[in-house]
Amino acid sequence: MEVVDLLNDLYTLFDGVIEAYDVYKVETIGDAYVVVSGLPQRNEQRHAFEIAKMSLQVIAAIKAFKIRHKPNEQLAIRIGMHSGPCAAGVVGLKMPRYCIFGDSVNIASRLESTSEAMKIHVSIAAKTILQDSKDFALEYRGEIDLKGRGAMKTYWLHQSSDRYSSLTPSKTVLPMPTLGSAPLADVLVM
What we know:
four-stranded mixed β-sheet, globular
């Protein structure tokens, strides 16, 4: 039951965070939380900025997150981010679901699994879109062997230390609800 409570608290936190950004929660699979931007509504090149801003907010929210049954332990997450084409649509009749498919989804998942705790692992495609923004700092991680893809140059995403940076959410942010002593927000994995 503790695992169910933990995941519920965590996903409720993530759900709260994503409300402030132009992103769409696709699904949760076990401990994976999949978010996309640019689908189902296209938003030009803003998709990478929305996911990047949200990812940084998720990391900040996790730092304040309290595990109910282990309040003295700090939870750590990994985030993988990729920008690229994918197919999307509603699948099924009995329990229809909006799903995304394609290599971009697989790359984001591989980036998450090869990331490090409390870091945002970014593909070169996402880095190319974000690199000129004053809101982000991108640090070369090196080439990582991604299963089924081979070697890929990857980067760590950080918030810029530029005093003119403004990582304001896309939407009006309401005060975050709380669950006991745990502030609630959202997390992304893509």
